[in-house]
C-alpha cells in the first residue's frame, strides 16, 4: 500500500459528518476577534490607567486613607484585567469585576473621599477611567448591559462632578460637555465592538455552512462509491457463485462453484480491510494478466484463444487487478449471453507505459443504451472499475458480435 492512498483515507476520515458540523464547529473568526478586541482594550486601558495613576500619585501627599483605599479598589482589578487581556485567559471575569468595582468607586467618590481634600477646579484621577469602565463592560457583559453601561456611566460621572462642585452654575456647562462627549464615545465603542463581533460571527456561520455542505457532499459521494463497489462485488463474485452452484451438475462444476463461493466470501470479508479491493500498486507483469485470464476461462469452462502482442512490461498491481476483473466480467457476459462463440482475447503490451485487453465474440450482440440502470454488470464492473484506475473501456456490439476494449496508459 502506498503512502498516498493512506493519506487520502485519513483525510476523508477527518471530514465531519453533516449532523456534527453545526454543533461542534470551532468559531475560529469569533475567537480571533475577541483576542483582537482584548488586545486593543489592553493597550488603550494601559495608557489611560497610567495617566490616572500619575494624577493620583501627584495628589497622594494630600490624600487620606479613604483615597488610598480607592486606589486599591480601582487599580487592583484594572491590573488584573490588563494581565488577563495580555495572556488571553479570564478576560470576561476580570473585566466584569473591574467594571463593577469602578462603577461602585465612582458613585461612592463624593461620600468616601474627604471633602477637605477635594479640589473642585481639577478633575480627580478616577474620572480618567470612565471609558475604561465602558470597554470593560464591552468585554464582560451581554449587549444590552453594555449599552446600559455606556449610557449610565457618563451620567454617574456627571452627577459626581456636580456634587464635587456643589452644583455650582459654573460646573453645569463643562459637565454637560464632558457627559455628552463621554456618552457618545462610549456608545461608539460599544457599537464598534458589536459590529466587529457580528461580522466575525457571520464569517463563522458561512464557514460552518460551507463545511457542512462539503461534508454532506463528501458523505454522499462516499456512499455512492461504496454502493457501486458493493454492487459490483455482489454481481462479480456472489451472484456468479450462486449461478455456478445452481448449474453445477458434475464434480468439476461443483468444485468450481465451491472455489467461486470461497473467493466471494473472501472478497466480502475484505471489504472493511485497509487494502483496497483492487489490490496494492506493487508492480505486476503483464504476463500475469494473461495467466489470470486463462484461469478465468478455465473456471468458466470456456474455450478461447488468448493472444499476446507487443512488449509485456510491468504495470501497477491495482491497474492489473482492475483489468482482470473487468475482463472477467466481459468473459462472463460472453459465456452467459453468447455461449462463448468465437471468443477471442488479445493482450497488447507497450512495455510499462500502456496495455490493452480486447475481448471479442460472435454472439448476437446487444444494444448498450437499452440496458437498465439497475444492471451493474457493465456499468459498475467494467466502465466504473476502469475509470477508478484512470483507464478506459469501450464496447461495440451488433448482430455480428461484441468487442470489449479495455485500456490503460501511464500518465
TrEMBL record:
> Which regions form coiled coils?
none
Question: Which key words tag this protein in UniProt?
Answer: Membrane, Transmembrane, Transmembrane helix
**Where is the chain membrane-spanning?**
36-60, 66-87, 94-113, 125-149, 170-196
Which SUPFAM superfamilies does the entry link to? ATPase domain of HSP90 chaperone/DNA topoisomerase II/histidine kinase
What is the protein's given name?
Answer: Signal transduction histidine kinase
Amino acid at each position: 500500500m502506498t503512502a498516498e492512498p493512506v493519506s487520502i483515507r485519513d483525510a476523508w476520515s477527518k471530514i465531519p459528518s453533516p449532523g456534527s458540523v453545526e454543533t461542534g464547529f470551532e468559531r475560529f473568526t469569533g475567537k480571533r476577534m475577541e483576542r483582537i478586541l482584548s488586545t486593543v482594550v489592553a493597550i488603550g486601558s494601559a495608557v489611560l490607567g497610567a495617566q490616572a495613576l500619575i494624577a493620583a500619585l501627584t495628589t497622594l501627599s494630600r490624600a487620606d486613607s479613604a483615597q488610598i483605599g480607592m486606589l486599591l479598589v480601582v487599580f487592583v482589578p484594572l491590573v488584573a484585567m490588563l494581565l488577563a487581556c495580555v495572556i488571553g485567559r479570564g478576560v470576561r471575569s476580570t473585566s466584569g469585576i473591574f467594571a463593577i468595582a469602578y462603577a461602585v468607586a465612582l458613585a461612592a467618590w463624593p461620600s468616601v473621599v474627604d471633602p477637605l481634600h477635594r479640589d473642585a477646579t481639577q478633575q480627580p484621577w478616577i474620572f480618567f477611567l470612565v471609558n475604561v469602565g465602558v470597554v470593560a463592560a464591552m468585554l464582560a457583559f451581554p449587549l444590552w448591559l453594555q449599552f446600559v453601561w455606556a449610557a449610565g456611566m457618563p451620567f454617574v460621572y456627571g452627577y459626581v462632578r456636580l456634587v464635587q462642585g456643589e452644583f455650582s452654575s459654573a460646573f453645569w456647562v463643562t459637565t454637560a460637555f464632558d457627559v455628552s462627549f463621554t456618552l457618545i464615545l462610549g456608545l461608539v465603542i460599544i457599537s464598534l465592538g458589536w459590529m466587529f463581533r457580528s461580522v466575525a460571527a457571520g464569517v463563522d456561520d458561512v464557514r460552518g455552512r460551507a463545511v457542512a455542505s462539503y461534508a454532506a457532499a463528501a458523505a454522499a459521494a462516499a456512499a455512492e462509491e461504496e454502493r457501486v463497489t458493493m454492487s459490483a462485488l455482489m454481481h462479480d463474485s456472489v451472484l456468479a457463485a450462486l449461478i455456478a452452484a445452481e448449474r453445477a451438475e458434475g464434480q468439476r462444476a461443483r468444485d468450481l462453484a465451491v472455489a467461486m463461493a470461497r473467493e466471494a466470501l473472501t472478497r466480502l470479508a475484505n471489504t472493511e480491510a485497509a487494502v483496497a479491493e483492487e489490490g496494492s500498486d506493487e508492480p505486476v507483469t503483464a504476463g500475469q494478466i494473461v495467466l489470470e485470464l486463462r484461469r478465468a476461462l478455465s473456471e468458466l469452462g470456456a474455450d478461447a484463444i488468448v493472444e499476446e502482442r507487443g512488449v509485456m512490461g510491468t504495470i501497477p498491481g491495482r491497474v492489473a487487478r482492475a483489468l482482470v476483473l473487468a475482463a472477467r466480467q466481459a468473459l462472463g457476459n460472453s459465456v452467459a449471453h453468447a455461449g462463448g462463440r468465437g471468443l477471442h482475447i488479445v493482450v497488447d503490451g507497450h512495455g510499462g507505459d500502456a496495455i490493452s485487453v480486447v475481448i471479442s465474440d460472435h454472439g448476437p450482440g446487444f444494444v448498450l443504451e437499452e440496458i437498465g440502470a439497475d444492471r451493474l454488470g457493465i456499468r459498475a464492473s467494467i466502465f466504473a472499475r476502469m475509470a477508478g484506475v484512470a483507464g478506459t473501456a469501450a464496447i461495440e456490439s451488433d448482430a455480428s458480435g461484441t468487442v470489449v476494449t479495455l485500456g490503460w496508459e501511464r500518465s
